[in-house]
Amino acid sequence: MPRVAVDLLSYTGTKGGMETYARELYREIGRQGSEFEFVGLASREGYQLDRSWFPGEMVDTGISGENRFIWAYGELFQVARQAKRHGADLMHSPATLGPARSSMPSVVTMHDMLYWSNPELMTTPLYTAPVKLMERLTSRNATRVLTISEVSRAEIEKYLHVPRARIDLVPLAGTMPTIDGDRDPDQKHPFVLATGNRRPHKNWASLIRALPLLLEHERPRLVITGSHGDDPLQAVVEETGMQDWVELKGWLTSEELGELYRRATIMAMPSFVDGFSLPALESMMVGLPVMMSDIPVYHEVCGDAALYLDPTSLDSIASVMRTAVTRPDEMRRLAAAGLEQAERFSWERTATQTLETFRRALTV
């Protein structure tokens, strides 16, 4: 029985979408069953979290996933040795980065190439060059590369020079939000929901700055979740005078977020660039309409089931928000189209195709 070591050094409970991917992928792999057995190489922090989703043994590597320097050294030079020590025949690194060298075949899931395509939008410019080096070394070592969108596949070819024949496109899927009851949008106080970290490419500030362009009777409230600690968007709220219209929330429980999905008028993703959009997919799964930046990757996820906006234009953003508040017929159409679009994605398919990539890597 082939043994797969899963590199979970970056899994610490604070990383958002990539952690959702690892957790839901391996939960589904466990449901399906296969000829593989799995050992999870956990960060020190991740080992303290719930591990019931992993379909095999999980071990504490003793490597911190929160200390950037310890983590980077662990990814490049330690995790492959630990995989060998645990008798692995194959390694999977599900969070873009992995070993610089391994004695066994390696599969890495590279979610996006944002440090290459848009370095000016990264939160920590000092880390841009090191991350690019790590991505280059990881991709050179990888037997096969998994990625989640056509946009990311093209950029992996462009920036890392990985031949297309070594890249497998396996889209993500959504996880049904925890909602207590049916969708019931707040008619008296309509609101736009936005959820995600505060990295610059997410462009949340433009949602806030577009609000004053709307007359009060057509202006929605705005709820933005997902911050850790002091929220940098607070300064934008004060600058625009939108304190009565914007609510900034931190990291929410699934139940708290589910209630927002249930009551929101529309979900907004005004990003300049992205690798996918799990929040959009999960919104469509429950019939919550979505307003998305008019960028290729969002068309891959949402198709015709979205209102598209120009993320560089406050007028465009304001216009779409106005439509969300004043056109209930359009919201009903988008809700129905979104439910249909979301059915094209499933963790079952993601897991099945990922296991097929593992088999390809082992036959090289």
From TrEMBL:
Pfam families recorded: Glyco_transf_4, Glycos_transf_1
Annotated keywords: Glycosyltransferase, Transferase
Domain spans labelled Glycosyltransferase subfamily 4-like N-terminal: 16-171
Protein name as annotated: Glycosyltransferase involved in cell wall bisynthesis
Gene3D superfamilies according to UniProt: Glycogen Phosphorylase B
Keyword RNA-binding: no
Domain (Glycosyl transferase family) ranges: 183-338
UniProt key word Glycosyltransferase: yes
Superkingdom per UniProt: Bacteria
